Amino acid sequence: MHRFLLTIALAASSFISLMAQTTEMEQDMFEAMRDGDKAVIVAVHAGTDSREAQQTLDRFNMRLRQAYPNYDFREAWTSKAVNKQVANPDALFSQLQKEGYTHVLVQTSELIDCTDMQYLRYVVDNNKGKFKQIRLGEPLLKDVQDYEEVVKTTVTAYGKPKEVNVLVCNGSENVTTDAQYTMLEYTLQDKDSKSWFVGTVDGYPSLDSLIKRLKQQKLKKVNLIPFMFAADQQAVTDRMREWAQSLQKAGYKVTTEMHDLGELDEILNLFEKHIRHAEKYRTLSAKELKLLVR
After folding, report:
1. 13 or 179: which carries more pLDDT confidence?
2. Which long-range contacts (CB under 8 A, 24 or more apart) does 121-125 make?
3. For 270, what's the count of Cα atoms within 13 Å in the CB-facing half-sphere?
4. What is the pTM of this model?
């Protein structure tokens, strides 16, 4: 299963890189603005009820505001549980149209191309007719270079020498989604971080799978690291406690690192790279792609 997911991850990464070369054209979305046009930057988050997590999201929002100080800023959440407080993307785009905005640049805080990200792509595409330009920046892990940079940053910031370090991810029941976590583990170990592993809460690689793989290590100390951009500290603490208990029963001494990826400037730099790419490059329409094939 692990090899199968890795094969999917590597193939998907190569496919995305190839498609990016043929489905985009360089066109700065703001250079074409005319008198009367209005532009806005939109940050889209999964959403949270946690004060600590919101502080991390506020850092993300501030980074976008600083990157585009001459444009307005809005925020939307995809979670149905919390978006009563802040507009969901579809409702926000309708409101922006009513307010006369013509250029909308959107950036997600998602780590991978998950279900919420796919939903956001659909909403952005469905609202293209409302604006002269609406574009969407990619999640944190988009291409091989992103994986390599995230691995370098994470190992430097949170790794403990002479211990097994485990990134604990949310995961899902979607094979394509989980393959991205397998790609993350492969990149960790490919970069000589042999004592680094990835486990998912609700997907694959699972905790049971992780314990089986840890048996191949001589080290008996495990450092658990939540791989989340902005986590609910209480929820994460509860989950880490469950994992720690299982690992202790398996004979390991366990510590935890309670941090958010959103605390790291290097991670915010990657998100800013993605939104600036979306600003500079336009995705070709189906009609344009058809003409290229001819």
Report:
1. 179
2. 123/89, 123/90, 123/93, 124/89, 124/93
3. 27
4. 0.88
pLDDT digit string, tens, across residues 9-65:
555 555 445 444 568 889 999 998 999 999 999 999 987 878 888 899 999 999 999
Kindly state whether residues 246 and 272 are assigned to the same domain: no
Neighbours of 291 (CB within 10 A): 10
Dihedral sign, CA of 17, 21, 22, 28? positive
* Residue-level pLDDT at 85: 57
Instruction: Name 41's bridge partners.
Output: 73, 105
The model's pLDDT over 120-156, given as tens digits with 9 standing for 90+, comes to 999 999 999 999 999 999 999 999 999 999 999 999 9
Q: Which residue has the tokens 């193939």?
A: 11
* Angstrom distance (rounded) from CA 264 to CA 140: 13
- 136, 159: one domain: no
Instruction: Concatenate the DSSP letters of all residues of 197-262 into one string.
Output: EEEESSSSS-HHHHHHHHTT-S--EEEEEE--SS--HHHHHHHHHHHHHHHHHTT-EEEE----GG
Q: Does residue 99 fall inside a structural domain?
A: yes
Dihedral pair phi/psi, residue 23, rounded to 5°: -110, 5
Q: 251: phi > 0 → left, psi -120 to 50 → alpha, else beta; which? A: left
Q: Is residue 192 part of a domain?
A: yes
